[in-house]
Amino acid sequence: xxxxxxxxxxxxxxxxxxxxxxxxxxxxxxxxxxxxxxxxxxxxxxxxxxxxxxxxxxxxxxxxxxxxxxxxxxxxxxxxxxxxxxxxxxxxxxxxxxxxxxxxxxxxxxxxxxxxxxxxxxxxxxxxxxxxxxxxxxxxxxxxxxxxxxxxxxxxxxxxxxxxxxxxxxxxxxxxxxxxxxxx
Length: 184
Description:
The chain is of the alpha+beta class.
């Protein structure tokens, strides 16, 4: 089995992350891997925001500000603290470009593929990652606070750092459970 296949089969979401975050050289390598994702017409319809240091607290403040009007202070505090679960958060942004043959949804899929490559590369370099979304990814407050344009969307918040403790292995489905032959 080659190393790419092994990396994919070993991939897991790691929720328990601590410092250090990936250094610049590793992050640049992982982002270069992201740029190899399928990308019809070479539009590069994605970008990444790197959040670390004080930026994590600011991101938490945006998350808390996005809470509904009836949210409790405990719920707001949980949102405020969530980016602090890792030393670095990468915000994956789908940034579609107007194109007659490549619809915006296909460009968002390209961003998702790029983000999966990014996670695999981080893991291959010895770091853990956890892809998170939730209501904050859909929030206008968060999107505007991060400086996204009206046509951009958040595909995910990639929490990354050094794995503190590995979580138990997650059972994976057998191929036959999600595959069938089409007779057409």
